[in-house]
Amino acid sequence: MQWKTKWDLSLSVSTWYGVRAENGKVVALDLSNNNLQGELPAEFFDLINLVQVNFQKNKLEGNLPNKIQNLKELEVLNVSDNNFSGEIPAAICELEKLKDLELFMNKISGELPTDLGKLKQLEVLALFNNEIQGSLPSSIYKISTLKTLLLNGNKLSGNLSREIANFRALENLSLFDNSFEGEIPDGLGKS
Fold first, then answer.
1. Beta-carbon neighbour count of residue 126 at 10 Å?
2. 97's torsion region: left (phi>0), alpha (psi -120 to 50) or beta?
3. pLDDT of residue 191
C-alpha cells in the first residue's frame, strides 16, 4: 500500500482514516488524494451500507463494474480525477438514492446509460473531460432535480431536446467542447 495515510488493521475499523461507521456498518469512505492505485477490489461492492464514497484525485483504474448496483444506499459517488476507463455501467441507474455522481477527469468512453432518468434524486452530474460519445439519452430530461450538469470535454453529439426546459432547478450547465448540433432550445434559462 502506497497510501499517504495508511490503515492500522490491528485497530477497530471505526478508527481507520477516511472511514465513517455507524452501528458497526461502514457508511462513508473518504480516501480522496491518498495515492490509491489499481482497481477497486470486489469486496468494496460488499459495503452495501455506503452512503458516501469520495475517491477523488487518486490513481484508480479499470472499469466501474455492474456490481455497483449492490450499493443501494449510495447518495454520493465521486471517483473523479482517476484513470477509470470503459463505459458507465447501466447498473448505476439502479442507485435510486444517488444525488451526486462525479466521474469527471477519467478515461470513460462509450455512451451514457439509456436509463439515466431513473436517478430521480440526482442533483449533480459531472462527467466532463472524458471520452463519452453518442447523444444524450432522452431519459436524462426527466431528472427535474438536476442543479449541476457538466458534460464539457467529451465527444457527445446530436441535438439538445426542448425537454431541457424540465431542468427547473438547473444552476450550472456546461456542454462546450463536444459535437452537439442545432440551436440551444428556447426552454433554457426561463426557469
1. 20
2. alpha
3. 44
